[in-house]
Design brief:
By secondary structure, the chain is α+β, with helices and mostly antiparallel strands. The chain is built from 3 helices and 4 strands. Strands 1-2-4-3 form a 4-stranded mixed β-sheet, with helices on one face.
Length: about 140
């Protein structure tokens, strides 16, 4: 199977005769495949000394279908969105863990106490006051 590539598009083609001979390119109508040509008809041109090439138009036959390219683009966008979401999740998780760690530190709670869910304190902890710029 022969294909010619231009970017993401592949065009399927077949060739007959001697490639060193002058090439006769058979162009189908829009949206048609090279199956429309009969091999015996092409052989008549080869017998006259031509190298015959025919191809499937884009979106038909064995050539690249435009929808494939469009869906590849959608898939790439979805992957990019997934990476952005995973990044945002990781950042939020870090912020949560920092906040939880600060809360445990401020209330003098050990990790073991937090994991057991048993924290006994008789007095409130001393929490440093907020920075003046943060208070409005």
């Amino acid at each position: 199977m022969s294909t010619a590539r231009n970017g993401a598009v592949e065009i399927y083609y077949e060739e007959f005769g001697d490639p060193a001979s002058p090439t006769l390119l058979l162009v189908n109508g829009l949206g048609s495949q090279c199956l429309n040509y009969d091999v015996s008809w092409c052989q008549l041109f080869c017998d006259e000394g031509f190298h015959v090439v025919w191809f499937d138009n884009r979106d038909v036959g064995l050539s690249t279908n435009f929808l494939v390219i469009q869906y590849q683009s959608y898939l790439a966008q979805a992957r990019s969105t997934e990476v952005a979401a995973l990044d945002a999740y990781a950042k939020a998780k870090v912020q949560y863990e920092r906040s939880a760690g600060s809360t445990l530190t401020n209330y003098n709670v050990s990790i073991d106490e937090a994991l057991k869910g048993v924290v006994q304190r008789t007095s409130l902890p001393t929490v440093p006051p907020a920075a003046p710029a943060a208070v409005k």
